[in-house]
Amino acid sequence: MNPLLNYTRTLIIVTLLFTCIGHAQEKKREFYELKTYLIKNEDQENRVDNYLKNAYLPALKRQGIKNIGVFKVRQNKFTKADRIYVLIPFTSLDQFEKLEASIAVDKGHLSAGKEYITAKYNDPPYQRISSTLMRAFSEMPHMRPSQVSTPRSERVYELRSYESPTEATYKNKVAMFNVGGEVDLFESIGANAVFYAEVISGSQMPNLMYMTTYANMEQRDALWEKFFASDKWTALKNDEHYKNNMNKADIFLLYPTAYSDY
What 3 state SS string does 16-78 have? Predict the structure, then answer.
């Protein structure tokens, strides 16, 4: 065989192999856990804050987990600020599954979190904890921590949960974001998306969740007006293929704590 031809074929095969590996890595989608702490008063808020800041987040980081978001409710006369949200990214379900066992033997975690961990049954540091497990959308397989730089108290982190009437319509709504271009639309208006994800375990299924961020409420309102006025959204909402794929939207307006990673 011609040596040059043989070399060329080998080079093509190696190039294709690395290209395939690169695409596979690029398409590997992260998993997210959204933990929600329900609290009843300022004392519980302070105890959960102290635990998260000084024990839990440092323990997660020792496990190689980065970009952990901690958020609180932007209170107004219609909204009670009784929840703390913790958003944790995972590279795999295996990493998620092993986390609790790992921090259970983490001496730094046990020491810094002792008051929280050993709380008495009649004086708990929170009312309840709920957990939602998600998998990132194919069009945004990795979290993108927000680069919004205004004071944290002014920032708006908008967390949305879209419920669908059936599993089939839910898949259609996910496709509307990915194939239909809703993700691209948010990108085009500068909505600073942190994540888009399919809920794979939670209390409101079938549903998807996503988070966008804004410098302040004025920018948030202006960008949503731009979203709804866009030709792309007009085409999407009038497309018969995507009709009736959502029947409930929960909207949570949040801000990041001082110890949140972003």
Answer: HHHHHHHHHHHHCCCEEEEEEEECCCHHHHHHHHHHHHHHHHHHHHHCCCCCCEEEEECCECC
CATH of the domain at 196: 3.30.70.100
Helices 217-229, 182-189: axis angle to 10 degrees equals: 130
Q: Is residue 16 part of a domain?
A: no
Q: Say if strands 83-90 and 69-73 run parallel, antiparallel, or are unpaired.
A: antiparallel
Domain count for the chain, please give it: 1
What is d(CA 110, CA 106) in angstroms, rounded to the nearest whole number?
Answer: 6
Give the residue from 144, 150, 146 showing the smallest Cα distance to 195: 144
State the pTM of this model: 0.89
7 occurs within a structural domain: no
Domain assignment present for 61: yes
- Residues linked to residue 88 through DSSP beta bridges, in sequence order: 33
- Show the domain range for 226: 29-256
Q: Across residues 176-194, what is the average pLDDT? A: 98
Which helix or strand (DSSP H or E) is residue 90 part of?
A: strand 83-90
Question: pLDDT, tens digit, for every residue of 118-173?
Answer: 999 999 999 999 999 999 999 999 999 998 999 999 999 999 999 999 999 999 99
- The closest alpha carbon to 260, from 25, 88, 92, belongs to 88
* Amino acid identity, position 126: Y
> At which residue do the structure tokens 């209390």 appear?
203
Question: Is 15 within the bounds of a domain?
Answer: no
Could you write out the DSSP letters of every residue in 154-195?
Answer: T-EEEEEEEE-SSHHHHHHHHHHHHTSSHHHHHHHHT----E
Smallest CA-to-CA distance from 200 within 141, 132, 125, 104 is with: 132
Vertex 243: Cα angle to 241 and 245 (nearest 5): 105
Tokens in use for 222?
């202006």
